[in-house]
Every structure is written in structure tokens, then in C-alpha cells.
Amino acid sequence: MIANTYAALKENRDKERARLEGVSPEPAATLGVLRTPNVARYSQEALYQEGTMIWTRIATSIIVTVADALGYETFINLLDEYQRPANMRLAKELLDEHDFPVDPSSAFALLLLWSQGCLFNDYRANRRSIKSSVPGAMSEAADWCPQVQAMKELGEADRLGELQTWCEAYDNLIMQAVNPNGYFTYLDCIGKEGGRYCVTYIKDEADPPGANYYEKVKNLQEARLEQKDTLLPRPWRTWPFLMPRAYEQLEVAPAVRAKAGTFIKARIAMDNLIIGAHALGWEKLLDLIFTEHTKGFANCSTDLRSYFGIVGDDIVNAGLALASSLYMMGYDGHSLIQFDDEGAEGVATRCKLVDTAKNLGMADEIEDLSLWCDYHHNHVIHAINPEFQVTHTHCLGRGDKYCRFCLK
User: Fold this and answer.
1) Which residues contact residue 264 at a Cβ distance below 8 angstroms, ignoring those fewer than 6 apart?
2) Residue 253: which residues within 8 A CB-CB, separation 6 or more?
3) DSSP of 303-326, one letter per residue?
């Protein structure tokens, strides 16, 4: 078993690349992602929802690791610098696709559309306050949060810290792609001590005080928290479930919505990973991730083995686990081109992780992204047998023609 360290994974990658190129300089024709028997017993919607939860664990663990290393202020200001223009590009595509007008109401509809399939399906929306009317205010409430749940499953619920502030900053970057003055504040958070609900308060603010984006978000948060009881009514759980008209008119099949969730959550995870690597360097960031989260992800991967009903520990069962996890996580550009009792080889003609880097304008900063891929997929493989290893020998993000990976 190769150690989960940057140096060990990089050495193994370079060795396996040379070996594979000596045997097969070019991959064989692709076969398509395998829908294995253990995957076929679930509906597509259920599979993609499970895949979205995997991405949620990945994203949230990366967020807390980068935030702890940099501090939330530095981290959130970096998101403002790189994620804001990326979100604006994606928002324009969604607005054009669904023919939304560019106005504040559509900004909220856009946020709800963004969250389709992302497991934020228990949020109840309210357009006004009952105790005191606040023109233009909107709010949401929920009694479950996938990000808080993710950290509980990893055994790291005590590390949530200022995750609430990250959520505000990220949601703002979505809304402000359409409405530059729209600001989110979480007036309650399940992840904080004593929190029973996640409750948002959304209202335009022309120029919140603060020298940078983090300060504006934080100062507005503190000001609104002081007025919490007058801004919003209680109990929040009795609110009607309301959606903007533009959102109500969308007709999206559940499986399509669920698959979109895997892409959105993967993009969130990779946005934060790549921006974190930009600030810390790949070696430092990956070693932090390997040190802090390996135990939690190993436990979750064991649960995934049970989910798929895999009982054997040979290379074929490891290949089944790999193919199944690729499918449920939305890696629809990845194919297994050899799959037998000697191992497996795979190829990808496109990769949503590399596409995320391109959208961020950071495609030239992902030289070692494939080492993270090795780390993640090996959690799944090691749950079957710790003696097996997945290695991504080639990567589209390094300028290769394909992503190529092997299991042996």
C-alpha cells in the first residue's frame, strides 16, 4: 500500500506512467462508463443523490482544511477574486438556457436552480416577515443541511467553525452574478452550537461597510444577527413552501436534476481545492488533506462497499467498486477499457474537474490535480483491499491527450 503523501503518490505516478507508456503508448478504443450489476439495482436518481453526498463530503472537508490553513478572511477574499467571475459566466449560461429575466427575483430563482439536486431540497421559502414588513426581503429555512451532515459522517462536526460565513459568501457570489446588491445572511445555522435550523435572510444592500468582501459579509452578518428577532418570524418551520414563478415553471426530471447535483457539488469542491492549491501549493494542501481526512473517508468508503453489496476482496470486486463510484459521481467521460482478474485500465476524454479549472481561469495551475484523484479513488479501492492501488498516469490537466488510470 502506497502512503498517502504527496511525495509517495507523485513518485508512484511517474513510475506507473513510464510502465504504461512502455506497454501501451495509446489507450484502446473507449467502451463507455460501465453500469455494473451492483449499480443497476438502484434508480439513477438514488445513485446520483448518493454521489452528490460523496461530493458534499469532499467539498466541505476541503473548505475547512483551506480555511483553517489560510484563515477565513484570506480564503473568502480569494473566492471573491477567482470564483466571482467564474460564477458570473455560469450564471449567464443558466439564465440564457431557462430564459430568466435579469432582475432580483431571478437572482433568487437562479440560486434555487443552482441548488437543484444538491440535496438542499428541504428549504422552505418566505417572501415577507409577519412581525415587521421588510420590503424586498426574502428568506429560507431548513432543519437539515447536507454540509453539516457531511462533516458528521466524517467525524469532524467540531471543525465547522465559520462555515456559516463561507455559505453566505458563496451564495452571495451566485446571487450577485444577477443582482450585484443581493446579500445573504444566515441568522441561524444547524452547524453552530444551539442551532436548530438553517435560516437565511436575503435583502439588497447597496454598499455594506467593509474594506474587502469578507469584511462586508461579516459586518452585515453581525448587524443582521442583532436584529434577528425583528427581521424574521418564528416558528420558521410553519412557513409555506414558495418558489419564484420562473423557478416553478421549470420541468426537470428527477434523475436529470440529481445528476446536475453531482456536477455542481464537484465544481464547488474543485473550486475550493484549486484556489487552496493556488494559495498553499499542491504539496502542502494535499498533505494537509491526507493527514486530516483519511480516517473519515476510509470509514465512509466502507459504508459505500456495503451500499453496493460487494463482499469479495479480489481485483475484480475492486474494479466493480471503482466503476460504480465513477458512475454515481457523474464521471460520464470516464471509461474502463480493460477489466479482468489482472486489473483495470481506464481512460477519460473529458473531465469536469479540469473543466472547473478552465472556468476559474486556472487551467495552468493543476499540474498535481491527478494526485488528489488518486487519493480519493483509493479510499474506495482500499475498502475492498488495501493492497490495490489506483494511479492516474496521464491527465488532461497536465496537457495529456487523455486522462489515463490503472488499477493493480
Assistant:
1) 114, 115, 117, 118
2) none
3) HHHHHHT----SHHHHHHHHHHHH
> What is the tens place of the pLDDT at every residue in 289-308?
999 998 898 888 888 888 88
Q: Is the pTM of this model over 0.85?
A: yes
> What average pLDDT does the chain have?
82
- pLDDT (tens digit per residue) in 307-339: 888 888 888 888 888 888 888 888 877 887 777
Q: Does residue 233 have a cis peptide bond before it, meaning omega lies within 30 degrees of 0?
A: no
The C-alpha atoms of residue 230 and residue 202 are separated, in whole angstroms, by 14
Count of other CB atoms within 10 angstroms of residue 182:
22
280-318 burial, b at 16+ Cβ within 10 Å, e below that, comes to bebeebbbbbbebbeebbbebbeebbeebebeeeebbbb
First to last CA, the chain: 11
The 3-state DSSP class for residue 119 equals coil
- Number of Cβ atoms within 10 Å of the Cβ of 199: 26
Q: Which amino acid is at 34?
A: L
Q: Which residues of 13-35 are buried (b: 16+ CB within 10 A; e: fewer)?
A: beebbeebeeeeeebeebeebbe
Residue 117: closest CA among 260, 312, 267, 287: 260
